[in-house]
Automatic annotation (TrEMBL):
This is Aminotransferase class III-fold pyridoxal phosphate-dependent enzyme. Belongs to the class-III pyridoxal-phosphate-dependent aminotransferase family. Its cofactor is pyridoxal 5'-phosphate. Keywords: Aminotransferase, Pyridoxal phosphate, Transferase.
Length: 461
């Protein structure tokens, strides 16, 4: 496999990129004089840049997305066939892939019932917020409009999802935000807020949510929106007992539980959905990245039949249904690709592989912790892992941001692409992230952790 272009083509692409592309998450001043990386081709776990340099991709396309790996001609084929037959139709009309993927998806989500198609994780979360707000108006006389979200969690880049964003530095300079989004504490035990551990910590962190509900007034709170395992906020797994208590609290105060599976969804943690690791019974589930592994832009907002039924009530009010549309929710390539994506995960036993390779990677990272004092904590579930870097294990002082960047760059120089949590957030910027495709082999995993080992040695000595 060779992603290389000829010299003439490379300079044309770079010229066009530098002149006209506004890249995501990029300060363009230093970028103007940097060497750009253009990814040209991918196969399995590997990608090639414009110079033909090969990389082992330990972050599934940068942001936890390409769960089944690159070069899946079987997905490309179903997309092509579907596009030739019918690319698009929107509104109340159905499509064959839309119907068939919904049925297949729901078969993996006992208790859930209805699939609403959209394009991005942010948009799926917006739909969920709109459902909650409309239920508040339909059922509770305009009360229960408040949506609780957690410190450190991230739900998207649009204004309403940023209003539910638990990472202040990301939000700076974009306010004012939407009203009635209320922050609650996180459950991260490594950077503990309470002098407790294990189950007691889990209970206490959940109780902190109840305290906010009571302070706000339970009759004003419509929903709680949480990531099952927090992604960009630091790859944070919940302490034992946390989710059971959260679930109890939601039931006690008649609060809808909205689980954001944009990262965890479709296999990343070793079960179809992250919430299934913790026995959670959600009312609303949103998902995006792994749904079609990036082969098509598709996201879903999934609800129970109870939630869906609320929108069939009150036929005397002509506006009581869910008055929402997403133009590209009518694209058929998305569900066609998603259906094939799910088939691949089943046929190749990728959930099982995710569990065993995740265990291997966790073990490798724990072994690195023995060797490198700079690793303060290793966390994760399945092939969704993080290693937090601290300059002192006692104080847990995060290492300098430039050093985290240096580790990522050094791994890149060794041909392994790894990630790091949101590097603009002090105290949150120090976790290396790993999310290899679910097809990873033992050799791939060992190669990733070997690169990290070398990089930590080089940067921290
Ligand atoms: N929720 C979570 C947990 C995410 O990590 C992200 C994106 N990283 C989103 C929502 C937003 O998804 P999108 O970028 O597709 O809008």
């Amino acid at each position: 496999m060779d992603g290389g272009l000829n010299d003439n083509d490379i300079s044309k692409v770079i010229e066009a990129d530098k002149a006209h592309v506004w890249h995501h998450l990029t300060q363009h001043k230093p970028f103007e004089t940097s060497d750009p990386r253009i990814i040209v081709e991918g196969k399995g776990m590997r990608v090639w840049d414009q110079n033909g340099k090969e990389f082992l991709d330990a972050v599934s396309g940068g942001v936890w997305t390409v769960n089944v790996g690159y070069g899946r001609t079987e997905i490309a084929d179903v997309i092509r066939d579907q596009l030739v037959k019918l690319p698009y139709f929107a509104g109340s009309a159905g499509s064959i892939p839309g119907a068939m993927y919904s049925e297949r998806l729901i078969s993996k989500m006992p208790g859930m019932s209805r699939v609403y198609y959209t394009n991005s994780g942010s948009e799926a979360n917006e739909k969920a917020f709109k459902l909650v707000r409309q239920i508040a108006h339909k059922r509770y006389g305009g009360k229960k409009t408040k949506i609780l979200y957690r410190d450190r969690d991230y739900h998207g880049s649009t204004l309403a999802t940023m209003s539910a964003g638990g990472q202040d530095e990301r939000n700076a300079q974009y306010g004012p935000f939407a009203p009635d989004f209320i922050r609650v504490p996180h459950c991260m035990e490594y950077r503990a807020q309470w002098d407790l551990s294990g189950e007691e910590y889990g209970q206490r962190a959940a109780d902190a949510i109840e305290e906010v509900i009571l302070a706000e007034g339970a009759d004003t709170v419509g929903a709680l929106c949480l990531e099952p395992v927090t992604a960009g906020g630091g790859v944070i797994t919940p302490p034992p007992g946390y989710w059971e208590r959260v679930q109890e609290i939601c039931a006690k105060y008649d609060i809808l539980l909205h689980i954001d599976e944009v990262v965890c969804g479709v296999g990343r943690t070793g079960t179809w959905f992250g919430y299934q690791q913790y026995g959670i019974k959600p009312d609303i589930v949103t998902m995006a990245k792994g749904v079609a592994s990036g082969y098509a832009a598709i996201a879903c907002c999934v609800t129970t039949e109870e939630v869906f039924d609320m929108f069939k009530e009150d036929m005397s009010d002509p506006l009581s249904y869910f008055r929402d549309i997403s133009t590209f929710g009518g694209c058929t390539a998305g569900p066609a690709a998603a259906l094939k994506n799910m088939q691949i995960i089943e046929d190749e036993n990728l959930l099982e592989n995710c569990v065993s390779m995740g265990d291997r990677m966790l073990g490798n990272l724990q072994a690195l912790m023995e060797k490198h004092k700079v690793i303060g904590d290793v966390r994760g579930k399945g092939l969704f892992l993080g290693a937090e870097l601290v300059s002192d294990r006692g104080t847990k002082e995060p290492v300098a941001e430039k050093d985290v960047g240096a580790v990522v760059a050094e791994c890149g120089a060794q041909g392994v692409i790894i990630g790091a949590t949101n590097r603009s957030i002090p105290g949150l910027n120090n976790t290396l992230c790993f999310s290899p495709a679910l097809i990873a082999t033992a050799d791939d995993i060992d190669r990733i952790t070997e690169a990290v080992d070398n990089a930590l040695g080089k940067v921290f000595g």
